[in-house]
Protein 1
Amino acid sequence: MDFKNPMRKFKIVFLGEEAVGKTSIITRFMYDTFDSNYQATIGIDFLAKTMYLDDRTVRLQLWDTAGQERFKALVPAYIRDSAIAIVVYDITNSASFDAVDQWIEDVRAERGDDVVIVLTGNKLDLEDRVISTEKGESKAKELNVIFVETSAKSGANIKQLFKRAVLALPSMEIEEEEEEENKKEDIVQVTPVEEEKDQSTVCWC
Amino acid sequence: MYSSKHNQAQKNGWLHKRGGRIQTWHKRWFVLTGDLLFYYKSPQDSRPTGTIPLAGNNVIRHQDDFRQLHACKFEIIAGSGRDSITSTHDSYMISAESTEDADEWVAAIKRVLYEPYGGGMFGRKLEETMTVEARLGGEYVPILVHRCAKFILEHGINETGIFRLPGQSSRVQALKDTYDCGSQLDISTTEDVHTVASLFKLYLRELPEPVIPFSLFNDAIRASKEIDANPQDGIPKMIELLKRLPKCNYNLLKYICRFLYSISQNSDQNRMTNVNLATVFGPNILRPEAISPHNIIESSNASANFCCALISHQREIFPLTSDEKPPKRLSIVNSAEIAEMCASSKSISKTGGSLFIKSTSPKFEPRGRLGSVPSRLNSGSPLPPDNKLSKKRFNMGLESPRQARKFNAFSAFGDTLEVKKEADMRSGRVSPLIFSTLNDDESTLPAHVRHIRSNSTHFDL
C-alpha cells in the first residue's frame, strides 16, 4: 500500500440526482470533451484512468451510477469499497441540492468516515443559478465534506475536483497509524451492551 | 371464531406495541380484519388481547431511527374530533422489524382507512385498484395515473428532462400522502411538473408487481430483442405476448406507451427522446423479480430496450380500438381565427414561443368560412370531445411553403390546444391552417391536403 506504487487503485463513485452531470464530469475528465447529447445513463458504468499527481501515480476507477430512483436501493453495494464519493448537484436545480443530504447520508452509512466525500455543484456555465456558492459551501461545512463548483461543459474546475479528492486521501503517515490500529485490534474489547427495556412481565393492555 | 379471522385477515404478523398507561413495549401478533386491528399474545390465542378500531382514525408513519431499539414505527392516532382511540390508549404506537414491514402495514391500514374515498392505492395490486376505482367512476387506468399524465401534458410537455429530472422529494411525498388519503382533487396547477412526473414513476414502482408481471419478464425481453432485429417479425410476436397480460395491465401499458410517445414527439423541446424516456421509465414497468448488483446492468438495459421498442412502435403494437379511435375529422382554421380564439378564450397562457389555449370558448371550434382553402376540405367538425384514452394530436400546416412558418399544434388528453410558433403568428397575414388528427391515414386525406402536406416541411410533429 504505497502511493508511489503505480498500481495503487482507488474506487470513485459518482452519486447525485438525475441529469446533474455525473456522466459529463467523467467524460470531461477522461476525454476532455463535452457531449451535448442529452442521454440518461443506464445502470452503472465503469471507467478507469491513471492520474499523475506531483510525485504520486494513482489509478482511478470511476463508477458512474444512474441517478434514477430505481437504482437507489443498489447504491450501497457500489459505495462499499469506494475511497472517494463525489456527490453532484446541479446549481440550477434546487431539488438536486436538497437530495445531497440523503446521498451523503447513504455514503456515511456504508463507509463511515473512511471515505473522502466531495460535494460538487455542477453546471457553473449556466446563468440561471439558484444555489449560491455560499449555500453550497455551508452545506459542505455542515456535512464536513470537500466542496467544489465545476462546469463539465466548459471544463472549469474538473481537474481540481479530482486533484483535491485524491490529495485528501489518507497519506502514508496515516497508513502507518492504521497499522498501529490493526495491532490494537488483536485485543478483544468487551463493552457492556445496553439491556432491552422490554418488561414483558407486566401487561397493561 | 377468532381463528377463522386469521384466515380472512388482510394482513397479519408480529409487531411491537407500546403500552397505553405504562409505555413499555410488548411483542404482539397483529391481525387486520375489516376495519379492526386485533392483537394477540400469540397466534394460537382465540381471544385478542386488544382491538384497535381504525374507522375514523388516522395512521402516521414515523421517520425510521436506527439508533433506537424500536426503529421503524407507525402510530394510529385519533381522527379529528376525538381525544383518544380507546379508553386505554390516546394513540397506538407500533413498531415493526424493518422499514419494509412498517411500510407494508401502513399501506394495509391506509387501504382500510381511505379506500372508501379512493385512497390507499400506492403499493396496491393494479387489479384491486381498478376494481375499487370502477365504483368511483374510474376508467381504463388508475385515476392517479390519468391525473399525472394529464397534468404533464398540459404543463410539462416541453419541459427539458421531463421524467429524467427529479421532483422535490418532500413534495412528492406530500402529494403521495394526499392521494393516499383519497383526495379526488386534480393536481394543483402550481405544482412542479417534475414532482408530478416523480409521483407517476413512484406509483408504478410501488406496484407489488410491475406492469409486466415477473412471470413474463424473460419473454418480454426476448420479444423486444426480436423487434430490434427485425420489426416486421418481432411486432406480431410482441402483440401475441401482450395478449397474455391481464386486461388492466394491458390497458395501463398501452396508456403509458401512447403517453410517452406524445412526450417524445416534443423531444426537440424537452430533449426526452424515445431512448431517454425508455431508460428512465423502463425499469418502472419491467424488472426481474430479484434485482442484485449482478443483474442490474443487464436487466436495466433490457427493460430500457423493451420500453423503447414499445414507445417507438406503439401504433402497431397497440392497434387503435373502437373506443379510442377519434372520429375522422378534418377542420380548418386560419391564423386570424387563432388570434380571435386567443382574444376570446378565457384561459391563455404564454410560455416562450408557445401559446396554450384552453378550449373553453366555443369560438375554439374551427368553422367553415375560411379564406383560400376550398370548402370541400372543411368538415367543420369541432375538436373531438375529451376521450381519455385517445391521443389527440393535430397537425397544422400552412397553405404554401412560401408562407411557411412553423406551427405545431396538439391537443392531448385534456382540452388544451397548444399552438407553437417559430415565426410570428400575429403578423396579421391570414394563412389558412389545416388541422387533422394524426391518426388520419394519409391516403384518405383529400388530394389538396396531401399536396399541402408534402409541400410543407414541418409536418413532423
Note: Strands of chain A lie at 9-15, 44-53, 56-65, 84-90, 116-122, 146-149.
Protein 2
Amino acid sequence: MTTATATPGALRGVVESPWVGFVLRRLRRLLISLLVLVTAAFFMIHLIPGDPVRASLGATAPQELVEARREALGLNDPIWQQYVDYLRNLVTGDWGSSMTTDVDVSQIIADRLPATVEIAAYAFVLIMLVSVPVGVLMAALTRGGRGRRTELAFTSSSVVIAAIPDFLLAVGLVYVFGVSLGWVPVAGKSTVESYLLPVLALAIGPTAVLSRLVRVEMLTVLDADYIRTARAKRLPARWIYLRHALPNAVTTTLTVGGLLLGGLVAGTVLVENVLAWPGLGSTIVSSILSKDYPVVQGIVLVYGVGVLVINLVVDVALALLDPRSTIRES
Amino acid sequence: MQVFTGVERPEGLSRWRAGGGRKWAAGLGRWGQALRSPLGATAATLLGLVLLLAILGPILWGDRADAIDTSSLSQGSSSAHWLGTDSLGRDIFYRVLVATRLSVALALLATAIGVATGVLLGAAPWLLGRRVGRFAVATINVAVAFPALLLVLFFAVIFGVGIRGAVLAVGLGMAPYYARVTSTLVAGVSGRDYIAAARIAGLGRMRILLRHILPNIGEPLIVNATLGAGGALLAFAGLSFLGLGVQAPSYDWGLLLNEGLNGIYVSPAGALAPGVTIVLAGLAFNLAGEVVAKKVGLRTANVRTASAYGPVPAAAVDEARPASDKDTAPVLAVEDLHVTVTGPAGPVTPVRGVSFTIGRGEAVGLVGESGSGKSLTALAVAQLIEAPGRVDARRLEFQGTDLLHTRGRAKGIGRLLGTSLGVVFQDPTTSLNPTMRIGRQLGEVVRRHLGKSRGEARARAVDRLRAARVPAPERRAHQYPHEFSGGMRQRAMIAMAMMGDPALIVADEPTTALDVTVQRQVLRLLEEIRAQKQVAVLLISHDITVVGQVCDRVMVMYAGRVVEDLPSSELRTEARHPYTRALLAAVPGMAADRDRPLTIIPGRPVDPAHFPPGCAFADRCPLADDHCRAAHPPLATDGAGRRVACWHAGEPLPVVTEDNVGVGEAS
C-alpha cells in the first residue's frame, strides 16, 4: 500500500476518521468480555456443589484444617466481599497459591505459559504459510470448471483431515514419527525436534480447513467485477491473483484464521496432554484432577484473556487490511 | 464450524399452517433425496453402522470385552486378539466395539442438553422482552467468543470429574453456539407476516414460539445439532482421554485411547483403533449434517460450467492482409464475430456474425435489449471473454493488429490493449477494487505497461482524475472506492480508461447504474474526452435516445446480430428496420399523452438457446410474413453506407391501435 504523504488534510482526517469510533467500540467490547470472564472465573469455585476445600483436601482431612484453609482463602466472608477482594488481588498480581504445592499461581503460569505460547504461535505461522498459498494455487488450478480431479482430490482429502481432532492427530503422529520411524521424541520438551509433533498436531487440521476456505473465497473473488477491470488493464495473472484477488479474500480468511487461532488455544490443552508437553494445558488438567482450584482459576483466566486478545488483534488487522470493515459497523 | 440458517419459505406462510401431515412427507422426501447422492449414501451407511454398533455392540460382545485373561496381559495383536490386550488381558478389539454405545449415547445426551439450553437462551429475547433479551444476547456473544473446549473445561471444574459432570460440561459448553444459531433464526422468522398475524390473533408468546417459530426453524436447528453431535462426540472423547470424563470400570473410546497410548510401543493398534473409530463416528455425524444442510439449508450458488467443448474450429485464416497504415486504418475492425458461452443447457452462441468498423475518433453506439448480445460483443472486442467462453471471427483487428492469433505475442498485445483500449464497466461500485486506493488502481496500467515509477504513475493518475472532473484529485487519489459517490466512481473508471492515452474506449452501459442527473454528467464527460483527445468510443446501451445524443452512428442489435446501422442524425427520420422503429416509438416524448399506456414492443426477446431459422424478430414484427420466418435477411449496405437486415425494410408500419398495444413485455 502506498504510504500516506503528509498533507494538511491528513490531520483533519485522523480526527474525523472512523478509527476513533472503531477503537472505542472494540475497547468497550473487550472490557465487557473481560468483566464477564473474571466474574465467571470467580463464581466457578462458588458454583461447585459442596465445599471445594473439603473436596480438595479429601474426606479424611481434619475439620480444623478445612476451616483454617477456608478462612485463609476468605471463603467465609460475604460473597460480595470475596468478589471485591478477588478483583483487587487480580489487579495487584496476587492470584493465590496452589492448594497442593503452595506455589504462587502467578509463578506456575509464568513457568508454564511460554511453552504453550510457543507451540501455538509456531502452529499458527505454519497454518498461514501453508494454507494461503495452497488455497490460492488450488483456486487457480480449479477455476471455471478446470481440474475436476484436482478439485475432488483436494476437497475430499481436506474434509477428511479436518474431521480428525488434533489430539488424535497427535496420537497418529506419535505412532508414525515416534514409534515407527523413531525420528523424534514422542513426549516432553527437549530438543528442537521435540517441537515437531505438537506443532504439526495443532497445525494440520486448521490448515486443511483454511486452505479449503481460501480456495472458495478466491474463486468468489475471481468472479468479481473488479477482477474483470484488472484484466482489462492486461495485468499479468500473478499480479491479478496476488494484488487484486488475495487482499479481497483475506477478510474471510483472517476472520476464520482468528477463530482457528482461538481454537488452537483449546487444542493445546489436549495436544499437550498427549505429548506430555510442559505447558498450561497439562497443568490445568492435572489441577482439575487434583481439585487444585486456585490454579485452575488462574489458568482459565489466562486462556480467556488469550482468546480475547487474539480476537482483538484479528479485528484490528481486519480493519487495517480491509478499510470497509470499520465503516460497515458504524 | 458452519452455521446454516437458510430457511427460504414464502413470506406469509407458516410451515405449521402450510400443510399438516404433508409437511413431514415433504420433509422426509427431501431428506431421502439428500441421502441418495453418493456422499449422502456414504454418510447414511456410516451413521447407520455407528448406531447399529451402539445398539448391538454390548449385547453381542459385552461379555468378551470384559473377560479378563491373566495369561496374556498387555499383548500386541495376535490371531486370538486382533488389536491386542490391555493391562488386565481384556481384548481391545471387542472393547472398542462395545464402547460405541457409551460414546455415542453420551454424545447424543450432551447434544440434547446443549440444544435445549441453547434454544432457551436463544429464544430469551423473544420470550422475555427486549431488555432481558439484550442482556441474553450480550452474554451469548461473549460466551461464543471462547472456544467450546474452554467452556467445557470450565463446566467440568464446576460439575466435577465423571460421566455426569462431563455430559453437563459438554452440553453446556456447546449451548452458547446453539443459542447464537437460535437467536439468529428466531430473529429471521419473527419478522414474518404469519408471526404478526398470530400475535394479532392474541396468541401468547410461548405458544407462538412452540407452534409457529420452532417448527419454522426446526430444519436448520436439526442440521446444526447433527453437526454438533459429531463435535460432542469428539469433545467427549477428549474429556475422557484427559481422565475427566468416563471413569473405569466404565469405558468409552476416549478412555480406551488413553489406556492405548500408554501401551503404544507394545500395541500401536490398541491406541490407533479407538482413534480411528472416534474419527469415523465423528465423520458420520458431520457428513450427515452437511449432506442434509446442502439439501435443506443454504443453497450454495455452485454454478458449474461445462468445460468440455468440441474441438475449436480453426478460425478462417486471414487472407494475407498487408499491415495497413495505422493512421488510415480503422481503430477497430470486426468481421463475422461469434461469441459462444456456457448456458444452463450447454454452449450457446448469443453473438453470431457481427461485423463493423470504428474509425479514428468515431463514436459508435450499440443498442439492444438485454440478451441481444451487445455486452458480449463489447467484451469480445476488448478481449475479456474468459474460458470456457469462446470468441471466433473472420477478422478482429485493433489498431491494425490482429487480436485473433496472438500466440507468442501475448505481452505485446497486452501492452497494446492495456494502453490503447480503455474499458468502462456498467457498475462502478463493483468494478473498482475495494481494497486498493483509487490512485494506485489507476496507476497500475502505466506502471505495468509503460514502466513508469510509482511517483510518475501517481502524477498521471491525478492528472487523469482532474481531466475526468473529479474535484480535489490529489486527495481523491489517496482514497478508497467506498469513499467515492456513485457518479465519482464512474468518473474514476473513465479516468482509469484514459490512463494510457487510448485510441478506443469501450463503455458497457456506463450510466445504467447511476442516478438520472449523474447519467448526463458522465455522458457529457465521455463526449468531451472524445472531442479533446480524438478517442473513438464504443458505447453500449439499451437506451436508444442516449446513444442517439452521444454517438455519430448507431448500430442496433437483435438476437446476436446487427439489424441496422445508420448515422444518429438520421435515426428519427431514416430508420428502416421495424425493430429500430419500435425502439424509437417506445421512447416517451415530452408531449406524450399520459392517459395512453406506454408503447411497448409486444412479445419477448429470443432465447439464445433457440434462435429461429428465419428473422429472429419475425414473431414480434407487424410486417412479418412466411418468407421472414423461413430465411434470415442479410445485412445489406446501401449507397450511403447505411446497413439494414430486413426483408421489408422501410415499409410503412400498420397503425397502432388500442388492441395491439399493451400486453407484451417491456424491454
Note: Residues 37-297 of chain B form a domain with the MetI-like fold fold (CATH 1.10.3720.10).
